[in-house]
Amino acid sequence: MGTEVNGEAISIPPSIGEGFVRAVTLPNGLNICLTDNFVKDDMRIQRMRIDRSFYVLGMDEIRIAQKLTYITDKDSLTNYPPIFAGVYLNSTLLDNTVISSRNNHSRSVRVIFDTAWMMKYLGLHKDDEVLRKYISLKSRRFTLEPMDEGYRSLMNAIIDADPASPLYATILENRVMMVIERFFSRLSELVKKHKAFHLNNDDVFLLMEVEKTMVDDFSRTPPTIDELSRKFSVGSSKLKRQFKQVYGLPIYEYYQKYRMEKAKDLLLSGEFTVKEVGYRLGYQNLSNFAQAFRKEYGILPSEVGGKTPEMDI
Amino acid sequence: MITYRYTLTTFRDWLTGFARTLGVALDGNTLRLPERLGQGYLRVVDLPGGLEALLMDFTLKTDILVERDQTGRGNEYYVFCCDQAENIHKMFVTIDEDRTDREDSTFKSMYLMSFLSDLSQFTSAGTHVYSVRVILSAEWLGRYLHIEKLGEVLQRYLDLKAQSVHVKDLDFENSAMLKDILDPTTPGEEMKESTYIQNRIMLLVEQFFSWMVAQMSVLKLHIRMTRDEIDTILAVEAQLLKDLSCAPTIAQLAKNSALSPSKLKKQFKDVFGLPIYEHYQKARMTRARELLLEGGRSVKEVGMGLGYTNLSNFSLAFRKVFGVLPSVVGKASRF
Fold it and tell me: Where does residue B161 rank: exposed (0-12), middle (13-18), buried (19+ CB within 10 A)?
């Protein structure tokens, strides 16, 4: 990039693009890399294989202006949706190349760790079924999980944390640990149920678009299943079945779950009244909001707190 | 009544001593209360990050007094506590000479205890205690919290605490997390339970310190007031800022807080660093600025909403605080 590292980060020079790349060592010893940038030029980043085995857990949300290609060993993925949002694991035993066309905007978090670390924190063993099936990566397949709203909010909190905060390292570590916990819990659940994604990548990419459409703006009425099915040219029963398979919940339950989570966060921030939160989440009728909230959390929004109404202005 | 006197070294030692006091054998790292004493458990967990946590979920059939003698451990440490107690008949905490009684039947809060004080806690029979505690060493604080930035804040907090316990209330999410730690529903067998517990304890610790940073930046350094006095002043502030279009009089505030006007004025300034009406005016103008930046309202609407009948008074008051006229802020937000 023709620039220098300033502390833990580089800023992309204005002639090349915008944003940053930051590398941080967390207090528990994990090493992470955060990016939030776009580059005006085509870019090829090639990672050469090494003999020592480390795992890289990555979460990427990339707005693709033209094209993105991802190559691991001899496997290559392209034809991503306009916004790619995925969580994946790969190994340093394999070559890895990303070719990104100009003006792609990428937000990402990468965490690197080794088997010893996994054994200490996750209780995984070398000959573990989870490791063998999903992590040894000898099969050269991608372990790709679409990013759901739960991952997304963790990722955003990590990337957008303020490095000047006295709690910066703690904020990063806590959320990185939650990401790791989530990823491995899901893997082991899949192993237990002997389930794997039988979906091809095109189907997964299409679901990423559907998911993004649903949670993009909670103040709007979400599209109906019919509308989604027309918009993305996919049969409604296939859409419903696959969405549930990948995101774990039926489309509307998923939407409602994260809508209520958003409500909870807004209320707990103490900056909004119950009324304001209801309106922001597209409720015309506040008692509907209260009922929906209680259904999810067992208490009424007014009991959570929120800001007390000050004045009518 | 059971009385347990200890000096803190590790939670493991603490639990061993407590088991001996009760005449109960430890089961590994767990003390299970036999039927004759009550129900529930106390357990020590070694967290993968090197911390030791004490988890408690129990009800005792007798009153209990737990007393800590501060002479135990020479080096600097703090105990982070996240407690929820239900069905309280009587409970009080004494730190050095300062005693605080819990008035309500439930108590839900997070707080930090310094190694410097003598400490005792009385809990009445039948109280259901949910509690998670971790010992944070100075070394740990240095690693996890940017101590150059936080040192002063921590000192300020402990200054307050020298005579009182300053606590953060648990919101419903904290409360749910506390119960989850005590009865963990680990999602997969592959996830170590201690990692699951650690992740959640760390989130509570983070929330507590975030709160502390925000809270202490409001309070001025080195105030010597008791917790009750500070709480009274915080309540006065809440009342003062309740309606930014119409301020209560000092006489009203003094009457509601049962303080004399002169004592009220002095203590308010000690806590917030500004006289009452200047503090009010600052909050009012900050609100004005927020509303202007939000857009959608004219300067006139904002001024009137904040109780100004004369707009030029509003403009001048605004300029006094922010150095620019409100019309400038309103315009900037439109582009």
Answer: buried
B168 sits in which H/E element: strand B168-169
| Distance between CA atoms of residues B210 and B190, nearest Å | 32
CA B315 centroid distance within chain: 38
Residues A46 and A102 occupy one common structural domain: yes
Same domain for A234 and A151: no
Q: What is the per-residue pLDDT for B318?
A: 87
Residues A179 and A294 in one domain: no
Residue A210 falls within a domain, yes or no?
no
Number of structural domains (chain A) is 2
**Which residues in chain A are closer than 8 Å to B243, comparing Cβ atoms?**
310-311
The runs of H, that is alpha helices, within A198-235 are 201-215, 225-231
Residue whose C-alpha is closest to residue A199's, from A236, A250, A241: A241
Same domain, A175 and A299: no
How many beta carbons lie within 10 A of that of residue B250, not counting itself? 18
CATH code at A284? 1.10.10.60
* CB crowding A12-38: b at 16 or more within 10 Å, else e: beeeebeebbbebebebebebbbbbbb
A281 Cβ neighbours under 8 A, 6+ residues apart: A218, A219, A259, A262, A263, A289
Residues of A in contact with B198 (CB under 8 A): 177
What residue of A is the nearest CA neighbor of B149? A166
Chain B positions touching A310 (Cβ under 8 A) are 241-244, 287
Residue B152's pLDDT band, with cuts at 50, 70 and 90, is low
**pLDDT tops 70 at residue A306:** no
A196, A211, A232: which is the final residue of a domain?
A196
Interface confidence, given as ipTM, is: 0.83
Question: Do A114 and A244 fall into the same domain?
Answer: no
Tens of pLDDT, residue by residue over A37-72, are 999 999 999 999 998 888 899 999 999 998 899 888
Report CA Rg, chain B: 24
Average confidence score pLDDT of chain A:
86
Structure pTM? 0.76
Most confident of A66-80, B47-61, B224-238: B47-61
What is the rounded CA–CA span in Å between residue B263 and residue B261? 6
Q: Which residues, 6+ apart, have CB-to-CB distance to B43 below 8 Å?
A: B15, B29, B30, B31, B54, B55, B56
Question: What pLDDT does A100 receive?
Answer: 92
Domain membership of residue A122 as a residue range: 9-196
**Could you tell me if A81 and A152 lie in one domain?**
yes
Is the domain of A44 the same as that of A180? yes
A40 and A174 share a domain?
yes
Point out which residues pair with A61 in neighbouring strands.
A85, A107
Once rounded to an integer, what is the mean pLDDT over residues A272-292?
A: 91
Is residue A203 one of the residues assigned to a domain? no
Best of B190, B210, B215, B217 to disrupt the A interface (most A CBs within 10 Å) is B190
Q: Cα–Cα distance between A153 and A262 in angstroms, integer?
A: 10
